[in-house]
Fold this sequence. Notes:
Layout: H1 2-20, H2 27-49, H3 54-82, H4 86-95, H5 117-134, H6 144-160, H7 163-190
Helix pairs in contact: 1-2, 3-6, 5-6, 5-7, 6-7
Amino acid sequence: RNIVFLMTCVVLFPFIIHFFNGATSSLIGRSFSLISTLNFFVFLILPYLFNFDLTLLRRYFIHVFNICLTIVLVYGFLQFITGPNEIDTNWMRTVNFATLGQPTAFLIKPFSVFSSPGSYALFLFIALIFYCIKDNKNGKTVGIIETAVIFLILLGLFSTGVRSVTFLAVFFSSLFYLWLIFFKLRLIFLFPL
C-alpha cells in the first residue's frame, strides 16, 4: 500500500504543480483539467487501495467495453453509409475540419462519437488488440463471434481512411492470425489425434 501511495504521489506531482502554475488562467479551467487527469489515475489505483475483486471488475469492464464498442461501431457505420445526421453536418461545417471529407454518404470519414476520424480509428485499434488477446490468454482459439467482431472492427478502420492506424491494425491482425495458425499447426504436429 505504501508503494502505491508513493507511486501515486510521484505521478500526480506534476499535475498538481500544473494546477497551481497552469497555463489556464481561470480557476475553473485548472480545476477541470486536474479533475479530469486525476479521474484516470483514481480509476487505475482504486481497486488496489480498497481490495476490489479484480475478476469481477474485469468482467464488468468487458461488458461495458462491448456495449461501448457496439454503439461506436454502429454509429460510425451509419455515418459512413447514410451520411452524417443534421447535428454532425452542422458541426462539420462549423469546425471546418477538412480531413472529415464531405457530409454525404460514402464521402465522409466517419468519426462516430469522437472528435476526429483519428480518435475513432485509435479506439478501434485498441478494440482490435483487446479482441485479439481477450480469449487467448488460456490458449483458447478465437471463435466465430470474435472473428466477426474483428472483421467489423477492421471494416470500421478502413472506413475511417486513417492510413497509419489502419496499416498497424492490418499488420497486427495478420501477425495475430499467422501466430494462431502456427500455434495450431504446432499443436497438431506435437500432439497428433
